[in-house]
Amino acid sequence: MRAGGPEVPPPADRKTIRSVIARYGGDATRLMDILIDIQDELGCLTHRTAAEIARVLGIPQVDVEQTVSFYHFFAREPRGAYAVYLNDSVVADFRGRAAVAAAFEEAAGCRFGEVSADGTVGLFHTACIGMSDQEPAALINGQVFPSLTPERARELVAGMRAGQSVEELKGTAYGDGQNAHPRVRALVRNHIRRRGPTVFADYTPGEALAKVTRMSSGEVIAAVKSASVRGRGGAGFPTGMKWEFARRAPGDIKYIFCNADEGEPGTFKDRVILTERPQMVFEGMAIAAYAVGARQGILYVRNEYHYLRDYLEHVLADLRAQGLLGEAIGGVAGFRFDISIQYGAGAYVCGEESALIGSAEGKRGEPRDRPPFPVEKGYLQRPTVVNNVETLCSAVQVMLKGPEWYNRLGTEQSKGTKVLCVSGDCDRPGIYEVEWGFSVNDILAMAGADDVQAVQVGGPSGACIGPEEFGRVLAYEDLATGGSFIIIGRHRDLLKDVVLNFARFFREESCGSCVPCRALTGMAQVVLERIIAGTGTAEDVERLQSWQAIMRHNRCGLGQTALNPVTSTIRNFKPLYEARLAAGDPRFVPSFDLAAAVRDYEAAAGAGKE
To answer: Among 155-164, 165-174, 476-485, 579-588, which stretch is predicted with the lowest mean pLDDT?
Structure first.
């Protein structure tokens, strides 16, 4: 502590902080990048570090503190030379996560949430990391270690104790496709089981832009509207309409955002698309920019895919060299557009477009009131288009092959294809690109799933359906989905193994901005635990159902659907709830177990008499 002044970091840390901030031009809106890089170099973000960052940027310290405190992957204290984040999703549990976690604890000599005494290994739980097709999986210093076993966990800790680098821990058995690229070198596998005619069709970068630059911006938008391209993030908003709103919005500065923050458990399509089709994604952003009149784009990527950073930057540099980004794109004077990459730091709610925009501005990722909508006032209060990764790929193919071609795919109200992320109790988990209109039974057959109790369509915020609904089709007019398709076998305890896990997830991931979401996600978990323990009542079940109406008052769609895991299973699997209710008249069985509550006291009192 300096006499008469605030506590400051050591000189070496201050030098690092200044260097990182200079890397981003002292721009406070790049706070997320600054924090990520400083934590990578210093190991954590203490209050002293936050104060120094604020001083150098010339902003209030509270602005730095509130951002640091919001995100899961920002650490206040050192998390060990090797920070192990083990996924605790439903599918990870299905695949033996508990045994892997026990092996990590035994080998490291510490529990999850702790750092080993020698500071070597830190063990931490984390939500779905986008690896549901190869669980159990963990992030170790930002690198993915999929398909873990207890033996592999012990081997990894032994390597850490021996001082091996993360690259040495990984070995050289890299995954397929671009996962083996020298700038990726990931152990991850793509598991592309079915290639459709849109995202995973043959593709040559630049061909779509060459066509677009011979059209007017209005003609581009008209083509996308004619093709009935809809957002692939789940809501299904018409893409052409969104582009048209942004083009008409006043102002010379506009932005194109690509939302690659797929935090919905069971979703991993964006990871595969960014690995195998990044050029198509970036070309889609450039097409949107041409249509809207934007000169800057931002790809917002979840932190769990940080291992792709060098590769994606390399792809962008290559596109600039080809004249597909930068100045005079396609030889068209005045068509200027470039893309930067913004990484998140672990917050499910940043999948919501206004929260994502706030995060990209260096703030807490809290959803904003609407109106105004992002196409009116978005990033830095400028008109902003936010499109999903898959949506932008669809736009590229529409420009290449025409609206008529696209409209021949899918159903009457759902045109084109959908990339599904299939995981859970099946023989062939992975990526399936299918036309809208495939039934649930079709998907189960393709994935090799037998004796299925339920399917969670659209992730936890979607719907959990039983066999009597497996004839339903995937389409906006029936079962809409952002991509997650989790298969649950009959041998699973649906309430304990699945619904409770989802309830905990929503309680942890609520940003806390809206009272219904902040309060009811926690209350729902407590009530659900009571029902599973056999001390719940019929009134508890009714109460859970009644809260859904209250949740509709939350600001964002994520908060409005946070109780869906509970309410959809009550609707479709109510006998499972009724079978867990206490014996006798369920409306009057006390949920408080007095005997259990005083058991510890009685044991202590008994021991004191000896």
So the answer is: 579-588
Question: Taking CA 418 as the corner, what is the angle to CA 414 and CA 419, rounded to the nearest 5 degrees?
Answer: 170
Using DSSP's 3-state secondary structure scheme, residue 509 falls into helix
Residue 315, token pair as written in the block: 């792809």
pLDDT at 596 over 80: no
Distance between CA atoms of 124 and 61, rounded to whole angstroms? 27
Strand partners, 340: 298
**How many whole angstroms separate alpha carbon 200 and alpha carbon 402?**
17
The dihedral through the CA atoms of 205, 208, 211, 215 has a sign that is negative
Amino acid at 124: F
* pLDDT (0 to 100) of residue 459: 93
Token pair 């031009």 is at which residue? 25
If you ran DSSP here, which 8-state letter would residue 552 be given? T
Residue-wise burial string across 150-186, b where 16 or more C-beta atoms lie within 10 A, e elsewhere: beebbebbebbeeeeeeeebbeeebbeebbebeebbb
What does residue 100 show for φ and ψ, rounded to 5 degrees? -65, -45
Q: Distance between CA 349 and CA 363 in Å, rounded? A: 13
CA angle 487, 510, 577 (to 5 degrees): 45
In SS3 terms, 429-482 reads as: CEEEEEECCCEHHHHHHHHCCCCEEEEEECCCCCEEECHHHCCCEECCCCECCC
What's the rounded mean pLDDT across residues 138-152?
A: 98
The pLDDT assigned to 582 comes to: 78
pLDDT at residue 610 tops 50 = no
Tell me the C-alpha distance between 438 and 387, whole Å: 24
What are the helix and strand counts (H, E) for the chain? 26, 15
Cα three-residue angle 465-469-474, rounded to 5 degrees: 85
Between CA 487 and CA 63 the distance in angstroms is: 42
Helices (H), 249-380: 269-276, 278-292, 309-321, 353-360
Please work out, in degrees rounded to the nearest 5, the angle formed at the alpha carbon of residue 90 by the alpha carbons of 352 and 545. Answer: 65
What mean pLDDT do residues 220-244 have?
92
Q: Are strands 484-489 and 452-457 parallel, antiparallel or unpaired?
A: antiparallel
Task: Tell the residue number behind the tokens 């290994």, with chain if given.
Answer: 121
Distance CA 244, CA 173 (A): 47
Task: Give the residue from 299, 306, 302 showing the smallest Cα distance to 285.
Answer: 299
Chain segment 378-408, per-residue pLDDT in tens: 999 999 999 999 999 999 999 999 999 999 9
DSSP 90: H
Residues 72-84 have a mean pLDDT of 97
Structure tokens at 482: 């952002």
Which of 79, 73, 97, 96 is CA-nearest to residue 87? 97
Residue 97 · residue 91 · CB < 8 Å: no
Give me 106's structure tokens.
Answer: 């035994």
Residues 565, 457 contacting (CB under 8 angstroms): no
pTM attached to this predicted model: 0.94
Q: Which two tokens stand for residue 156?
A: 């990894």
Average pLDDT over residues 69-89: 97
